[in-house]
C-alpha cells in the first residue's frame, strides 16, 4: 500500500502539463492535511514535475529526460532572470530550443527566429510582434513593457512574453550559466542510471524459510538478497554468511541483517562506490524516501560504470565567488550558515570537491571573525581531519566555534553537517590584520 506522499506525487504526475496546482487544492482532492500536501509539492518540485513562480503560482511542467536536461522551460527562465509574465502565461511549461539576441535589423532577425526559440530584446516593439508570430517567446530586457496587442497575441498562441530589469548581456550570461549547470548535472552518473530495477531483483520476505534462500541462491548464484515486507519496505538483507553463521534458525527474518546500508537513486555512483568499499559490502539496496525498495546495485555494476565515466569540462567561474553566493546565514543562529552544493562546487564524480571544501571552511572562519568585531583576517592553515562524501544538491550547515583568541590570531573549529550527520570537521588558524 502506497503512502499519502506517494499518492500525491502520482496525482501531480497525472495532471496535464501547464495546469496550476496549490496546497489547498491537493489537500482537498486527496483528503490530506495542508502540511502533507505542501511537503509532497516540494518533492515534486525537486523531481522537476512542477515549477513555482512568484506572482504566478505552481504549475505542472514537462519532466525532462536526462538526455535533454540542458533545455530550460520558460517557467525556469522566469526564476533565473527574476522576470514578470506579461502574456502567454499558459505556455510557461514549454521548453526553449535556443535563445536569440535581438541586436540586428528586423529583416535579418527573422532568419534566426523559429518556433521554440526565445528572443532576448529591449523595447523594440515590432520585434516582439515578429517573434510571437514566428512561434518564439520574448524576453524583454531593461524592465520595458510590451504592447497590449502583443500580450493578446501571446495569450492566443500560448507563448510567454517576459519582462526583466536586467540588461541583455546580463540575461544572456545568466541563461548560459543555467544551461551549463544542467549540462554538468547531465554528466554525473547517478545510481538510478545503473541500478537493477525491482522487477529484475530477487527478494525474500521475513517469513520465508531459509530453504527458500538456498533455492534462489542455487538459481541465481547471488550471495545476498534484500528482505522486504509485503508493502515493499526494505527491512533487511540476507547473505550466505548470515545463513552459515546461524545453522539452527529456520526463517529469513531471524537470520537477516536488519537495517542494512542503503543508497538513494539520486546519489552519484562514485559516492555509492565509496560507501561500498568503505563498508566492505558487495550489494547495496536502492530505496526511495519512504524506504521502499526500488532495486539494487552491486560492486561490479559500480566498477563498470566508473570505468565509462568521463571527466567533466572545466568551469568558468571561480569557486570563491560561487561559495560566497551560496552561503546564507541561519535565522536566530548567527554562528551558523548553510549552503547547497551546486554543480560548479563538485568534482568529476558529483561530490563536493576538496578545493570547494577548503574555500567553505576559510569563508566560514572569516565570517565568524567578523562577527566578533575583529575585522579582516587571512587563513594561515586549515586542517581537515574528518571528511565524507557530500552529494550534488545536498544542503549543508556550517558551524564555527572559536577555541582560542589572541591579539594577532584566532583558532577555530569548523563542523559541517548534512541530513543530521557530520560530513566534515576541521581546525583552522587565522591571522588578524592590523587595524
From TrEMBL:
Keyword set, alphabetical order: CBS domain
Coiled-coil intervals, chain numbering: none
Keyword Glycosyltransferase assigned: no
UniProt entry tagged with the keyword Membrane: no
SUPFAM superfamilies to which the protein is assigned, alphabetical: CBS-domain pair, HprK N-terminal domain-like, Thioesterase/thiol ester dehydrase-isomerase
InterPro entries listed in its UniProt record: CBS_dom, CBS_dom_sf, Diverse_CBS-Domain, DRTGG, HotDog_dom_sf, Ser_kin/Pase_Hpr-like_N_sf, Thioestr_dom, WH-like_DNA-bd_sf
Domain (CBS): residue spans on this chain: 195-255, 256-314
Pfam family, one: 4HBT
Highest taxon above the source species: Bacteria
Protein name: CBS domain-containing protein
Taxonomic lineage: Bacteria, Bacillati, Bacillota, Bacilli, Bacillales
Amino acid at each position: 500500500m502506497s503512502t499519502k506522499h506517494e499518492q500525491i506525487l502520482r496525482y501531480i504526475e497525472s495532471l496535464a502539463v501547464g495546469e496550476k496546482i496549490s496546497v489547498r487544492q491537493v489537500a482537498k482532492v486527496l483528503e490530506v492535511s495542508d502540511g502533507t500536501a505542501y511537503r509532497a509539492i516540494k518533492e515534486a518540485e525537486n523531481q522537476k514535475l512542477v515549477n513555482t513562480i512568484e506572482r504566478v503560482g505552481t504549475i505542472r511542467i514537462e519532466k525532462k529526460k536526462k538526455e535533454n536536461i540542458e533545455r530550460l522551460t520558460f517557467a525556469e527562465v522566469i526564476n533565473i532572470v527574476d522576470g514578470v509574465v506579461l502574456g502567454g502565461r499558459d505556455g510557461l511549461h514549454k521548453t526553449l530550443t535556443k535563445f536569440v539576441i535581438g541586436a540586428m535589423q528586423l529583416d535579418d532577425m527573422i532568419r534566426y527566429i523559429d518556433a521554440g526559440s526565445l528572443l532576448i530584446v529591449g523595447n523594440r516593439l515590432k520585434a516582439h510582434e515578429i517573434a510571437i508570430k514566428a512561434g518564439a517567446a520574448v524576453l524583454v530586457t531593461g524592465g520595458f513593457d510590451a504592447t497590449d496587442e502583443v500580450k493578446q497575441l501571446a495569450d492566443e498562441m500560448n507563448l510567454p512574453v517576459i519582462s526583466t530589469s536586467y540588461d541583455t548581456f546580463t540575461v544572456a550570461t545568466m541563461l548560459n550559466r543555467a544551461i551549463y549547470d544542467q549540462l554538468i548535472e547531465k554528466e554525473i552518473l547517478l545510481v538510478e542510471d545503473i541500478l537493477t530495477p525491482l522487477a529484475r531483483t530477487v527478494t525474500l520476505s521475513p517469513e520465508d524459510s531459509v530453504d527458500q534462500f538456498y533455492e534462489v541462491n542455487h538459481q541465481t548464484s547471488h550471495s545476498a538478497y534484500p528482505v522486504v515486507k509485503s508493502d515493499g519496505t526494505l527491512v533487511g538483507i540476507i547473505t550466505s554468511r548470515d545463513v552459515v553463521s546461524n545453522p539452527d534458525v529456520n526463517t529469513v527474518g531471524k537470520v537477516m541483517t536488519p537495517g542494512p546500508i542503503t543508497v538513494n537513486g539520486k546519489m552519484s555512483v562514485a559516492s555509492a562506490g565509496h560507501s561500498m568499499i568503505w563498508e566492505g559490502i558487495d550489494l547495496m539496496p536502492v530505496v526511495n524516501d519512504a524506504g521502499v525498495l526500488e532495486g539494487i546495485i552491486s560492486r561490479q555494476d559500480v566498477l563498470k560504470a566508473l570505468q565509462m565515466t568521463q571527466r567533466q569540462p572545466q568551469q568558468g567561474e571561480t569557486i570563491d565567488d560561487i561559495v560566497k553566493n551560496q552561503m546564507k546565514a541561519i535565522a536566530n543562529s548567527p554562528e551558523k550558515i548553510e549552503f547547497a552544493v551546486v554543480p560548479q562546487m563538485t568534482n568529476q564524480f558529483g561530490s563536493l570537491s576538496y578545493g570547494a571544501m577548503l574555500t567553505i571552511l576559510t569563508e566560514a572562519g572569516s565570517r565568524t571573525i567578523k562577527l566578533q568585531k575583529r575585522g579582516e583576517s587571512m587563513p594561515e592553515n586549515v586542517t581537515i581531519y574528518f571528511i565524507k562524501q557530500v552529494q550534488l544538491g545536498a544542503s549543508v550547515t556550517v558551524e564555527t566555534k572559536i577555541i582560542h583568541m589572541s591579539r594577532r590570531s584566532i583558532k577555530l573549529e569548523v563542523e559541517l553537517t548534512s541530513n543530521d550527520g557530520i560530513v566534515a570537521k576541521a581546525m583552522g588558524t587565522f591571522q588578524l590584520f592590523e587595524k
